[in-house]
């Protein structure tokens, strides 16, 4: 029936996750957890919400990416820049098993929401942060080389799993497909 909350099913049913991330990395990681049954509480800023809501292809005012990444999540609006929003985030963190964030380094520390602070009040919470490299850490050219410790060796698997190609590090070849691994040849 409409409006009823279904009991989560899946291998992660019963796991509670607090998502403090925005745009791609944080929401993408927690999307997998939600798809497998975890209860994901997504914190969004007031006003426009997660930028993913309006990112790229938009249909009826909402990004198609949002529909994919927010599925099975519970969303709350908190202004983490304000004391009240930070207090509520700390209360939520007391009730979860995992906290995932992808803000720039030092952001959560500035707000009093760093893992070390949250851990004081919830000894079982684990932290999956940081999950992305931030632009202010290393020059782009250095981040894009396999020797720099990036995920370039995993890109073919990532592209196959997500259908998303990293266009920043390679040129797109016309008529190439992920399924065949290269251009398709016409039948004679």
Walkthrough of the structure:
With 188 residues, the chain is α/β, with parallel strands linked by helices. It has a domain at 16-127: Crotonobetainyl-coa:carnitine coa-transferase, domain 1 (Rossmann fold), CATH 3.40.50. Helices cover 27% and strands 13% of the residues. The protein has helices at residues 25-35, 64-69, 83-93, 107-110, 115-121, 140-143, 155-162, and strands spanning 16-19, 39-44, 58-59, 62-63, 73-77, 98-100, 126-127. A five-stranded parallel sheet has the order 5-2-1-6-7, sandwiched between helices. The protein has a two-stranded antiparallel ribbon with strand order 3-4. The model is unreliable at 129-161 and 166-188 (pLDDT under 50).
Write the SSE topology.
Layout: E1 16-19, H1 25-35, E2 39-44, E3 58-59, E4 62-63, H2 64-69, E5 73-77, H3 83-93, E6 98-100, H4 107-110, H5 115-121, E7 126-127, H6 140-143, H7 155-162
Parallel strand pairs: 1-2, 1-6, 2-5, 6-7
Antiparallel strand pairs: 3-4
List keywords for this structure.
188 residues, alpha/beta, Rossmann fold, five-stranded parallel beta sheet, two-stranded antiparallel sheet, 7 strands
